[in-house]
Amino acid sequence: MVSQRLVSGKMVAAFAICVSALSSFSHSAFALEDTVNPELFDKMEYRFIGPYRGGRSVAVTGVEGNTNLYFMGTAGGGVWKTENAGLSWKAISDKTFKVGSIGAIAVAPSDPNVIYVGTGEGPIRGVTTSHGKGVYKSTDGGETWKLVGLDKRGQIPKIRIHPTNPDIAWAAVQGNIWGPNEARGIFKTIDGGETWQHVLKVNADTGAADLAIDPSNPRILYASMWHHGRTPWFIKSGGEGGGLYKSTDGGESWDKLEKGLPKLIGKVGVDIAASNPKRLYAIVEAEEGGVYRSDDAGKSWSLMNGDNILKARAWYYNHIKVDPNDENTLYVMNVQLHKSIDGGKTFETVSLPHGDTHDMWINPENSLNMINANDGGATVTFDGGESWSSIYNQPTAQFYRVITDNLNPYYVYGGQQDNSTMATPSQTWGDGMGIEDQFAVGGGESAHIAFNPADPTLIYATTINGTLTEYNRDTGLTRPIMPYPEYVFGRNARDQKYRTNWNAPVVVSKHDPDTVYYGTQMILKTTDRGVNWQEISPDLTRNEPEKQGLNGGPITNEQAGAEYYNTVFYIAESAVNKGELWVGADDGKLHITRDEGKNWKDVTPHKKKRRSML
């Protein structure tokens, strides 16, 4: 693969690593008491240093009649447009949008200049998910945008537009991530977004997760309503009011569809076979869940395939797309992309450049032409998935955090969501920077990275589920140094010897680079590169066992590790006083030691009783 090179000039990309033009300055060059004249920074600009490696996208669409034109909505980088079928992408929302999280993109079938975008992605991760702030509309193909309402409604995962009147549109509002709210459901506009009517409302815990419109009769719509909620330690999916609803009057009234469907339903994806609108498919989260099919426009349903791989981790996936030209061909989006050609009875996987799939558009004029959205970005195919466009041309990566060393040129290190760690130089002696100049340093996507900034030969990096590694820059070898290796997936946090956050912290001492600190529910210390570990603190969290059990329910458990709670979230070492550590936990506890763990003091500023949001 030919890498894309970066050249000098004004290049700005959301959620890419940016550095100052005065790149020769190091933060360690100034003593704590020094100050810098702010006027020195007035003329400084940011320059883009990469990487060109795509980040999560959950919303894509093509434009009928133009096989080169596609739009992508990213989890943190706004809206992007390609006019050459994915060979290159251009950011088109940065100047207007107030948030970078995109949940839905819809192009008007009757006028491709009219585009509606819903902000706030649907997969409500406990980390790396940003809130939504309304619907934006363009009437010039994405050149300019206007906020047209629903700006206090939270996440908006789907928008549908009337096939002949671009002023009529429906928005599926999932709602606020962290608590019940009445402003959830289906909203409709008949004046191009000037006003919105709340046409389907179930209850404060139930929002809209998906929406489908009958292409032969726009009065007929199907909505997926999702009873859900989240706390840092639990994802709730399923409950009263959840399920499928149908309207036959353009959304003015709705009936719940129940015959043949499970009683307790979580998240549902729904789609219509354009070639036969009486044929519907739904991917249903339930104890008896899976791919359901209706051949009578939703009156009754039959389970076609209950394989768990199709509905696993439903809160993050559970989307379905039907080939507009073949009622028996459909795709289910989950970790992998699954395809059926026999009406949902059997499935095979379709290869993609990246996994964790979320959205698809299939060209009504040519079913071999599709675009897929996944955790690696957006990618286009013209041969039914045999080959796809690159994801190494999209500077949309989500980096959890970054750290720099003191080399010249200095390097920037970080962990990319659903990808690897990466070290990239701030500049090179050649004509730019490409992927050949960048390398992984162990750990993984959610890494804290630590090293001696003057000599970053040994690099320590964390990632999910307690993983901790040492990377040797001289040899290129990575060595696991978990203090207590044990299996994490599927186990309760309270049953682990060490509870670790999805973002477990690691710190190399500023005073002694042989000393490494690692955070679990306590602080661990090693002075021999992880061969031996010493516990230097008690449990520094609230240690609430009731919040350390199953991380999901009532239908699907969630034990990937992101909801592990009562864990150390951050470690800060004093640059002045050796042995002084400040430690913050994800539950709000704050402690300090001034003798490297011999004594600890609770300095939590507020101790107000907190109320559960579920």
What does it look like?
The chain is an all-beta fold. The chain has no helices and 46 strands. The strands form twelve sheets. Strands 15, 16, 17, 18, 19 and 42 form a six-stranded mixed sheet that branches. Strands 3-4-5-6 form a four-stranded antiparallel sheet, with no helix packed on it. It has a four-stranded antiparallel sheet with strand order 7-8-9-10, with no helix packed on it. The protein is globular, with a radius of gyration of 25 Å.
Q: How many H/I helices? A: 0
What is the makeup of the main sheet?
Answer: 6 strands, mixed
**What average pLDDT do the residues reach?**
92
Helix content: under 10%
Strand content: 25-35%
Distance between the termini: 48 Å
Estimated structural class? mainly beta
Jot down its keywords.
4-stranded antiparallel beta sheet; mainly beta; 614 residues; 6-stranded mixed beta sheet
Chart the SSEs and their pairings.
Blueprint: E1 18-20, E2 46-48, E3 57-63, E4 66-74, E5 79-82, E6 90-91, E7 102-107, E8 115-119, E9 135-138, E10 146-147, E11 158-161, E12 169-173, E13 185-189, E14 197-200, E15 206-213, E16 221-231, E17 234-237, E18 243-247, E19 255-257, E20 268-272, E21 280-284, E22 290-294, E23 302-305, E24 319-322, E25 330-333, E26 337-340, E27 348-350, E28 357-362, E29 370-374, E30 377-381, E31 399-404, E32 411-416, E33 421-425, E34 449-450, E35 458-462, E36 468-472, E37 477-480, E38 506-508, E39 516-519, E40 523-526, E41 534-535, E42 552-554, E43 568-573, E44 581-585, E45 590-593, E46 601-602
Parallel strand pairs: 17-42
Antiparallel strand pairs: 1-2, 3-4, 4-5, 5-6, 7-8, 8-9, 9-10, 11-12, 12-13, 13-14, 15-16, 16-17, 16-18, 18-19, 20-21, 21-22, 22-23, 24-25, 25-26, 26-27, 28-29, 29-30, 31-32, 32-33, 34-35, 35-36, 36-37, 38-39, 39-40, 40-41, 43-44, 44-45, 45-46
